Amino acid sequence: MEWSERISAALSRPAAQQPPWPDPGQVRSVSAFLATLPPLVTPEEIRALRRQTARVARGEAFLLQGGDCAETFDAPREHLVGTAATLLRMAAVLAEATGTPVVPVGRLAGQYAKPRSDAVDGLGLPVYRGDIVNAPAPDPHQRIPDPVRMIQAHRTARAALDLLRTGRFTGVHTSHEALLLDYERPQLTVDPTDGLLYGGSAHLLWIGERTRRLDGAHVAFAELIANPVAVKLGPGATPAEAAEYAERLDPHGEPGRLTLISRMGSARVREVLPALVERVAATGRQVVWQCDPMHGNTRVSALGYKTRHFDDVVDELEGFFEVHRALGTHPGGVHLEFTGDRVTECLGGPGEVTESDLGGRYESTCDPRLNVDQALELAHRIAELSAKGTSLFR
Ligand code: PEP
Ligand code: MN
Predict the structure, then answer these.
(1) Are the CB atoms for 175 and 204 separated by under 8 Å?
(2) How many CB atoms lie within 10 A of CB 175?
(3) What residues contact residue 120 under an 8 Å CB cut-off, 6+ apart?
(4) Is the pTM of this model over 0.90?
């Protein structure tokens, strides 16, 4: 079957979380335009990351992934620089303390689309779905999904990648949730050197907790591409599902092709994760196990801010390391939301951010991020946790 037919078949499956575009004709025009642009990242760069995630899967390296929950188009250049620089500082802390190579992957240059639990927000307006779809301002007109925003996303991502490719950020690869299929599809590209299909929008693409249904379009999309791919697993994920992701998304048993990102919450990780890890190991696949200690620990503060406590984040990471240590498997990496800015979005940590501090600098348009001090402190904690193991990371 031709690639075009396989792509059409995959994307004709049910796709959760797609925006209610008011004018499908306009979406087709935008897609056709995006398809004329060169891919944002190259197959060669993607293969370079695959070699690194393979090392992670074999227990020889650690995957550090993170950045904003939702990148915005108007973020100043310093914001991007701050996130990438923080990622590299955290990587240096981890590498230094553990003597293990660290693979830095940013939630950068494309993390513009957000899955949402409800179609309307607290004000009764159509929910903000990320800058690639609509605007966060509480105005009904600005909340109408606008496909032209996909062109702006591509342009913003290109500028971000240009900056990341300058010498200072060598080694930083990009990633985002491959949520918005009308953005991802026109960027698919076949590399004539190996005949494989690559997602051209970022090096690593992941599927979120809300779009991981096994008969859905997102999993079928991930099956087609040769990029390293990841799937988020919440506390409702079953061992049988985890095994099916491993078999379908890593059919040839290639270490590092698939990353499974557990985001269980600090209260559930020790109970739920072991059976998933054991069942996947039984398939014979060498996946990367990564811990996202953010998304299972979100709560609303007394004053109505979405927040997370630094101690819960640390607790989930501790649970993740304990589980892998007990099973003899490799705790391969962490997936975090942080910024290089001194925001006040998460509670606790080195600056002891309190509930009444949250209003001071709450800048996220979606989930709360660790600020630079909390992020660096967390890197030290992760380094301690991994050093506590019988051997590093293993
Ligand atoms: C996210 O990473 O911002 C996200 C929405 O995560 P999850 O799919 O795990 O809820
Ligand atoms: Mn988030």
Answers:
(1) yes
(2) 28
(3) 126, 127
(4) yes
Give the ligand 1 atom nearest the CA of 111. Answer: 3
Q: What is the pLDDT of residues 70-82, one digit of tens each?
A: 999 999 999 999 9
Task: Tell me the two tokens of residue 358.
Answer: 């949250």
CB-ligand 1 contact for 69 (6 Å cutoff): yes
Confidence of residue 265 (pLDDT cuts 50, 70, 90): very high
pLDDT tens digit string along 212-244?
999 999 999 999 999 999 999 999 999 999 999
Tell me the pLDDT band of 387, cut-offs 50, 70 and 90.
confident
Q: Which residues surround ligand 2, an ion (CB under 5 A)?
A: 69, 367
Of residues 319, 338, 328, the one with CA closest to residue 385: 319
Burial of 159 (0-12, 13-18, 19+ CB in 10 A): middle
**Buried b or exposed e, range 318-355, using 16+ CB within 10 angstroms:** bbbbbbbbeeebbbbbbbbbbbbbebbbbbbbeeebee
Is ligand 1 within 6 A of the CB of residue 107? no
d(CA 154, CA 157): 5
pLDDT at 394 over 50: no
- Residues 75 and 340: beta-carbon distance below 8 Å: no
184 Cβ below 6 A of ligand 1? no
What spacing in Å lies between the alpha carbon of 69 and ligand 2's midpoint? 4
pLDDT of residue 341: 98
283: left (phi over 0), alpha (psi -120 to 50) or beta: alpha
Q: Domains of the chain by range and CATH?
A: 11-387 (3.20.20.70)
Residue 40 in tokens: 């944002």
> Which atom of ligand 1 approaches the CA of 70 most closely?
3
Long-range contacts (CB closer than 8 Å, 24 or more residues apart) made by 1-6:
3/188, 3/190, 3/197, 3/224, 6/224
Question: How far does the centroid of ligand 1 lie from the alpha carbon of residue 138, in Å?
Answer: 23
Q: Which ligand is nearest to the CA of 177?
A: 1
As to burial, measured by CB atoms within 10 angstroms (0-12 exposed, 13-18 middle, 19+ buried), residue 284 is exposed
Looking at the chain, the whole-number percentage of residues with pLDDT higher than 70 is 98
